[in-house]
Each structure stands twice: as C-alpha cells, then as structure tokens.
Fold this sequence. Notes:
Rossmann fold, 4-stranded antiparallel sheet, GMP Synthetase, Chain A, domain 3, alpha/beta, 9-stranded mixed sheet, globular
Amino acid sequence: MRPLDDWVSTAARRAPDRVALVAEGRSLSYAELDAEVGRRARGGVEAVPARPGTEFVVEVHALARGGGTLVPHDPEGEPPPVPQRSDAQSIVFTSGTTAEPRPVELTRANHEASARALGERLGLGPNDRWLACMPLHHVGGLAIVHRAAIFGSTLVVHERFEVDRVRQELARGAITHVSLVPTMLDRLGELEAPALRALLLGGGPIPRGLLGGGLPVVPTYGMTETASAVATGIPGDPLPGVELSVAGDGEILVRGPMVAADGWLATGDLGSLDEQGRLTVEGRKDDTIISGGENVAPARVEAVLEEHPGVAEAGVAGRADPEWGEAVVAFVVGNVPEAELLAHARRRLSRHEVPKAVRYVAELPRNQAGKLLRAQLESPPR
C-alpha cells in the first residue's frame, strides 16, 4: 500500500480550507476531499465509470491512495476487461481514432512527471482554477484531475461540454485554465475570459483562425502513452524533461519520465524538428495518402482548407482511384463553392495534395474527445 502522504493529503495539510473541487452544484475543501478519499481508499484493479463530478474525482484519488489501479471508462459503455493485478496507477484507453482503443498502463511517476512538466511551463499554483469540460476517461481529462491535486489548485468540473455554460463560467472571471479541443473552441466563438491565463488546445490539427482573437491559446501535442502533453506551441517546444527525435521515415519519437515505455516511444505521428528542437506535427503515419506516388498528410490539407473563411471544418481521406492509386477527397462543413475552395487549395498546396473531390457534409464524425474519426468519413449526396 502506498503511503498516505499522497497528492490530496499533502494539499490538505498545506491549505485544508482551500476549495479542491467544484462539481454538481457543490464544493469540497481539500480537508473534506482528503477525508472522503481516506474513507474510500482501497487496492485492486477497478473499472470506474467516468461520471463527471465529485464521485469520479474521489474514486481517482481513493484508488491511488490505496495502491490500486484505476481503469476509467465511458459511463455509457460496457466496463472494459481488467487484469487481476497491475503495478500501474491507471490503465487508460487510447482514443481509437485510427484503430481499436487499446489500454496503456501509466504509473504514478508518469502522471506526476506529466503534471509537473506542464505546471512548470504554465506557472501553475494553488490559486489557479482549472475548468474540466472534457471526458474524464480520456487522458486529457484525467490529467486535469491530477494537476489540480498536485498543485493544490481548484478543479471545476462540468458534467458535459455545453457552449453557454462554458461561456458563462469563463465570463465570471475565476477560471484561470481550461482544456479544449479545436471543435469546442470553434463552437464557443468570441469569449470573455478576464482571468484566463492559458487555454490548452489539443487533440488534433488546429486551424490558424483559432489562434487569434486575443485569447491565451496554448497549442499542445501529446497522447495517452505520454500521460498528456509533451510539447506546447506551434512549433511545439518540448516540456521540461521531454526529449523529441524524428526517425528516418519521419515518425516522431518521444522519451521522458512521463512516457509509458522504456526508451523511445514511436508515436505513430509524422513530423519534423527545427534547429531549436521545436516540433512540427504533420499528421498520423497510418493516415498518409499515397497519391500518384507522392505522400500526402491529410492533417496538412485539412489545415489549409480550414483557413478559408467559408469552411467550418474539414476532414480528408484517401479513396481508391484507378489513375492516382489513392485520390485525396475532402469532406467539408461549410458553404464555400467547390471551385473557390479548390483554387484556395492550389495556392497553398502542392499539386498532389490538392483534393480531387470535395464532399459537403452536415458534420464530421468525431469521438467524445473531439478527435476526427477519419475512417468513418463518408460521401453522402451533395
């Protein structure tokens, strides 16, 4: 069993009356959270539905305190199979955007290294308030729970992402940090957020239009296997303790104390490093389209298409083609004429990257974390 001097008990000892958690219309001080975690502390490997609110946050820390292993899952889905024993603090499933979701074992050291590296980059402290409105069973949401406890700050949990509620929460002027995916920020539109110091934005390619507007947007790059972010900014500046490299085939490699692997982790993403060691992500290796013998990164094409003011969202996939091998096909949410959009693409892209066809759709398929499900892109009638 791990010692009781864990993240929550340490925060409770330092500031017992500070608000630890706000959720479901109630709040808990660190002393109250510490007591509740102590009553529920237990070992074993346990699948816990990530019902946003007080209950799930308490369970995260109760299993950690008892030396157990948390397996968070979607509350609407069937509990995943769990091993009888594990030395991990959590077993988190990947988002499943390019393959079936798979379990990743993350240790206490992985989670803490991730939180402290990002905390150092952002200057996190006990007076901060972090809004969590993302699914907590994905690593991006779970990481917020850990960060708040490690830095003794306040965690504000929304049961789901609701545009009006998030806008009102930020306008009150108490939230200093929030994590979103690009589609969430796009839906929020113009925001008033007087206290906001960092809006972490990750989970997929970021249209350039979302980086303006005066908000403190911090683009992030990370994955389940790294317990959340490993780089921030565009291009991505590695967090403290993170090493980045690029293999001969362009695949991004990551090494550091937050990585759930010994040595270098092959991320499955393609990218490049500049002279300062900053990372540019070019898309998923498995997503690469080979059109006319040339490699095409769908994420790059999507980013260019989304720069057009008439495009709300774009998804790109390859389709079998007798002439090109694979043809680049764009799926677009918007009202821009196809000829105008393709002319825009030709000005920014190489010839082999320009879509051979544009399909207009009402929405793009995404998972709960807002990531594009590229394999589910379809071609409905226009």
